Q: What sequence folds into this?
């Protein structure tokens, strides 16, 4: 297992925070954060009606001159409702570029039969999901059964078979140990992840800047060894523009400006959009 210099990680977070403070009020930076957001609703009270309204709100924001969010992220049973809402988008509208993300693999715990995880991925894609956010087997990682964790991800990757982007949720708050976060990152990428993601947002500790630094380090090492670029998604507790800009700065600092596109960087959030939109719209009024 790779040794992680936690003091260095903390210094990197401090450097990013200093840099982010200089750019957190720049309109172009906030617009980029908006465009990289997976606009997310994962409530037990979600319904086709509420998800349709949620999707319509994202579409309406593009009509007011804001960039489209990268995707609408919902439970797999609600993918169809998002798809129906997006079919009403006028041709040529920027909102045509909004994707659909489904959380799968027995989200958020990952505790079910492998066959169920695979079927859930397949059904979500059949119903219109462009992207799958699937949680790693956290219990297997914590107990040292890395082969099981990797094989499950590889089977989901095979089930997806290139029909959707696979974002693997590491649940970094539960893994806690930086070395284990690094190992889970490498394992997920080796299993075929297109993105690695911090958290489900359903645990006491979700995304942290330190975990994001470690994940970026793993992504950089993986690209050097395998010549394949993998994206990073931060999610869980990111509510303010300042927090979003900090994570954006970490990614730019550790991986380079070329990662700052929706194809390689995502922010999973709902309240973030609710904070960004009024601010950005007021600046154009």
A:
């Amino acid at each position: 297992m790779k040794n992680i210099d936690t003091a260095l990680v903390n210094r990197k977070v401090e450097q990013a925070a200093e840099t982010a403070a200089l750019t957190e009020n720049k309109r172009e930076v906030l617009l980029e954060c908006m465009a990289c957001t997976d606009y997310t609703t994962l409530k037990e009270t979600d319904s086709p009606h509420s998800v349709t309204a949620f999707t319509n709100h994202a579409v309406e924001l593009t009509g007011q001159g804001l960039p489209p969010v990268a995707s609408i992220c919902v439970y797999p049973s609600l993918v169809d409702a998002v798809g129906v809402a997006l079919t009403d988008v006028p041709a040529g509208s920027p909102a045509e570029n909004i994707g659909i993300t489904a959380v799968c693999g027995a989200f958020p715990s990952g505790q079910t039969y492998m066959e169920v995880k695979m079927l859930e991925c397949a059904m979500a894609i059949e119903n219109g999901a462009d992207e799958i956010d699937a949680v790693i087997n956290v219990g297997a990682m914590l107990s040292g059964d890395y082969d099981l964790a990797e094989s499950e991800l590889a089977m989901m990757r095979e089930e997806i078979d290139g029909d959707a982007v696979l974002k693997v949720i590491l649940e970094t708050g539960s893994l806690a140990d930086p070395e284990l976060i690094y190992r889970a990152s490498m394992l997920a990428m080796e299993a075929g992840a297109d993105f690695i993601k911090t958290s489900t947002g359903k645990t006491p500790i979700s995304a942290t800047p330190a975990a994001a630094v470690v994940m970026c380090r793993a992504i950089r090492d993986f690209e050097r060894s395998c010549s394949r670029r993998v994206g990073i998604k931060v999610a869980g507790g990111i509510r303010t523009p300042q927090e979003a800009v900090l994570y954006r700065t970490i990614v730019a600092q550790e991986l380079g400006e070329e990662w700052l596109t929706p194809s390689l960087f995502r922010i999973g959030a709902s309240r973030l959009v609710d904070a960004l939109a009024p601010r950005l719209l007021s600046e154009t009024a």
Observations:
- The CA atoms of residues 45 and 51 lie 10 Å apart.
- The longest strand covers residues 99-104.
